[in-house]
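User:
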Amino acid sequence: MNPRAQRAFCTLVRAQDAPSLDEFIFTSCKRRRWSAIAIALCAAFASRLSSAQDRFEIQVYDSETAAPLTPGLETHLNYTAEGTHEPSPEGEVPTHHMARFTVEPHLGLTSWSELGAYFQTALRSDGTYDFAGLKLRFKAKYPDKLATWIGLAFNVEISSIPRVYEANRFGSEIRPIADLHWQRLYVSVNPILSIDLSGALAWRPQLQPAAKLGLDLWSWLQVGTEYYSGLGPIGGSATSVDQTHTLFGIIDFTSDYFDVNFGVGYGLAGPDRWVVKTILTLHPKPEHR
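Assistant: Predicted structure:
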């Protein structure tokens, strides 16, 4: 076969093997459809991972810090009275009838900053008692009150939590704090940014705002409400189904040497329905230091 005939034969074979225009359009649309489905599934999975709140430390921060070189201790006891009965898709253990106990020592560094740590444990419904992670935090405040009433501070944390309690094992938190105590009214707002350091949403800020509203009945007793939420990644696609919203009724007792925060929470959205929490804080007041 001469070269010209050979080229013509090859061209004819390629033309017979090539898909028609209809087949090309159908295949392209099919590929795009499956790609869109895959992207949607990944986004939905990611938004579900991001919606969880911190179950070990349920607390709205105030803007105060410990005095220089003054130690203190907080203990957190949280109990999920009605939660999940099956492991999560990411492998987290069921939360139903789980108790969590956290010890948080802290130390004042300067007149405007303090350093703290969390040692977390968990008691599961089957009687298993686990170490449940470690956190380190640094808190700093603006030295003066704005307009004599408004306190400003921020808190940063890094954490390492076993995957059975937190799907994304390594994480961090940036917590701006603004609070106001005016006459009998107390308000605190914590627009928390949680940032996973591993997992599907690594380095994507997730919004988990918390707030507190309290009313002083006496100088040593306050009643109020606290709100906690997990809204998913900023700019993400988390729907209301994926989010968590929990509202607590709160009683705060204060004294010269210890404070108690007790609350009962109801999950408006999310996997946990009823949660009970207690925070016991041991520290001398300024006049006793």
